[in-house]
Amino acid sequence: MATPTTSHKPSPERIFGALNAFQGTAALKTAIELDIFTAIADGADQASSIAQRVSAAERGVRILCDYLTIQKFLTKSDGRYALTQESAIFLNRHSPAYMGTLANFLASDEAKRNFDALTETVKNGGTSVAQGDNTKPNDQIWVNFAKSMAPLAAVSAAFIADLASAKEGKACKVLDIAAGHGMFGITIAKQNPNAQITAADWAPVLAVAKENALAAGVADRFTLRPGSAFEADLGDGYDFVLLTNIFHHFDMPTCEKLMRRVHAALKPGGKAITLEFVPNEDRITPPTAAAFSMIMLAGTDSGDAYTLSEYERMFRNAGFAKTTLHPVPDMPQQVLLSEK
Amino acid sequence: MATPTTSHKPSPERIFGALNAFQGTAALKTAIELDIFTAIADGADQASSIAQRVSAAERGVRILCDYLTIQKFLTKSDGRYALTQESAIFLNRHSPAYMGTLANFLASDEAKRNFDALTETVKNGGTSVAQGDNTKPNDQIWVNFAKSMAPLAAVSAAFIADLASAKEGKACKVLDIAAGHGMFGITIAKQNPNAQITAADWAPVLAVAKENALAAGVADRFTLRPGSAFEADLGDGYDFVLLTNIFHHFDMPTCEKLMRRVHAALKPGGKAITLEFVPNEDRITPPTAAAFSMIMLAGTDSGDAYTLSEYERMFRNAGFAKTTLHPVPDMPQQVLLSEK
Fold first, then answer.
1. pTM of the entire structure?
2. A225 touches A203 (CB < 8 A)
3. Helices of type H across chain A
4. Distance from CA of A305 to the nearest CA of B (A)
């Protein structure tokens, strides 16, 4: 039944806002591409000086910076722009926590194309434009992921390294499935000089991970297992298997299939460590984890953001004894720890 | 100078949110296209029954409705969806205030294309993809505007009719420039049986306005003046000239040129009534009016959301005695009243 439930004064302004929301993505992506935030960090603070620094027109920069101020990515006072604390930390290219590369993946042409076809996709119940079966290689997208998304991994990679007791320094074997940029395994290897990392992913993606392992000084303990996680020989005797942002691409039977392979690769007492968007059973909270389902609808045949009870059941069916939930502090993702 | 100015705990979640914001536009547009809100208004309240009603897949509808709940366009309780008050008023097709058609214009392929090219546009200082000189005809876009955007005009059209003292019923001549759907002039004609409306716009756009005038029963007092507002014979002796959402398309000299034509068309003591997005002098408040500049950057050569002082100066230069500002209640736009 349709029951109006809110009580504030009705206005179409939020509808207007949602229909215009795509502009916010474009504006932030453009500001990152032109490196507006770095220009301001470096001292340019008016439309004219910022425009000169980023080689753009003053009218364009003035309207863009005003818009970024309205969106709270800048402040403006007496015609002078300044960075917010968030922009200074995450959008200034000189900052160690720079995350501007995220735009290349989250707001890529492919991602936008998936959402341009959303009506057809909702009718179909699965993506109508992408290669939605992610058990098959799709190198261009996943190389882009590996090159773009590493900065977002820092906090959760440190959290996972703690769960793997990396700082204790015990000898251990870690398998990182769908390694991508490799930063989850690399973080463990940096903290634990006795950790051996095996990274599994498509070969062109592993080339990016290998570069990152070299840059981190852990390449001598970083082995590659190229190919499908469903078909390649993954090895065995692992203390930990990392499964970061992979299950959401598949339906439940496919997830269980992978979980069984993980179970076989772990040594007795070993642990599967899953990083995921895990919504509550209502599937509408917490908002970022729950909303992630929509990206899977738009881009996959049958992926989803699964709940804890769904993960518990799948891991149990695959032979795991127990699965526990560990929210990553200050991040929208959760970690699941599943014991063999 | 870059000075961090906010004090809350820094997190990349808002950056993540902005880079994903385009999904919100796509989701609402899809829900409108599939008529999800009307299906719920008509009694379907679970993913399965809504899916059946709108001929879409249950997985697609379930994920879409959860997402719309997260975005506060629906509520969900025990797996059953309901409309919010706003959705019941503005997104149920049976509601007299239905605004679903807005999606066709605000989130059109043309609008998205303009924003896909935003980086190049900021560099250029003007649109890099659209036909950005709106003094030339661009029928496909403006016919789409006329067909899609009438529902948004209701509140401001009633406000303008009051400013034109329509209910007093005095004989008066009204010229509606860039009439579009024609609802501003039509609203005056409905309230004042002695008002004669002249609608000016490109001929294919006026066909839409004429249909609306017929439907409103005022076609006998609704005359068309097809062609460019800068070149066509507009007539003279008008009590009121309506200028709704037109000046923002042009640079200031072009606005003044049109204002001079309006001045010539008004009778002594006549008034120009302008409906616009008028930001404060800081150009960042109020947010919706100020953010409108970005749409003009993306889609025009040199349009803008002008401030009150800019409008005052332009109208004065065009010969007007005085310009006053009148915010439209509960709407993001403002009305300017300029006396000859």
1. 0.95
2. no
3. 13-19, 22-34, 36-41, 47-54, 58-70, 85-90, 102-106, 109-116, 118-124, 139-148, 150-163, 183-191, 203-215, 252-265, 287-299, 308-317
4. 10
Token code pair at residue A227:
């190919």
Residues whose CB falls within 8 Å of the CB of residue B163, separated by 6 or more in sequence, listed in order = B273, B326, B335, B337
Query: Which residues on chain A are in Cβ contact (under 8 Å) with B42?
Result: 2
Whole-angstrom distance, CA of residue B298 vs CA of residue B332: 20
B56 φ/ψ angles, rounded to the nearest 5 degrees: -135, 170
What are the pLDDT digits (tens) for B234-275?
Answer: 999 999 999 999 999 999 999 999 999 999 999 999 999 999
The answer to ipTM > 0.90 is yes
Supply the DSSP string of B39-69, one letter for each residue.
HHHTT--SHHHHHHHHT--HHHHHHHHHHHH
Contact B86 A14 (CB under 8 A): yes
Euclidean distance between CA atoms A73 and B292, whole angstroms: 17
Query: For B297, phi and psi rounded to 5 degrees?
Result: -60, -45
Residue B235 zone, left/alpha/beta (φ > 0; ψ -120 to 50; rest): left
Which residue has tokens 């509601």? B95
Tokens of A252: 């439940």
- Does the distance separating the beta carbons of B284 and A66 come in below 8 Å? yes
Cα separation, A60 vs B204, whole angstroms: 32
Cβ-defined contact of A25 to B19 (cutoff 8 Å): yes
Tokens of B134: 């709106």
Q: Amino acid letter at A108?
A: S
Other residues' Cβ atoms within 10 Å of the Cβ of residue B169: 12
Contacting residues for A274 by C-beta, under 8 A, at least 6 apart:
A243, A244, A247, A311, A335, A336, A337, A338
Smallest Cα–Cα separation from B40: which of B82, B98, B68, B72?
A: B82
> Which chain B residue's Cα is nearest to A280?
B66
For residues A47 and A61, the answer to whether their CB atoms sit within 8 Å is yes
Say how far apart CA B120 and CA B158 lie, in whole Å.
40
pLDDT at B1 exceeding the cut of 50? no
Nearest Cα residue to A279 out of A233, A316, A333: A333
In angstroms, the separation between the Cα of residue A221 and the nearest Cα of chain B is 31
Question: How many Å apart are CA A88 and CA B304, to the nearest integer?
Answer: 29
Looking at CA atoms only, how far is residue B165 from chain A in angstroms? 25
Average pLDDT over chain B, rounded to whole? 95
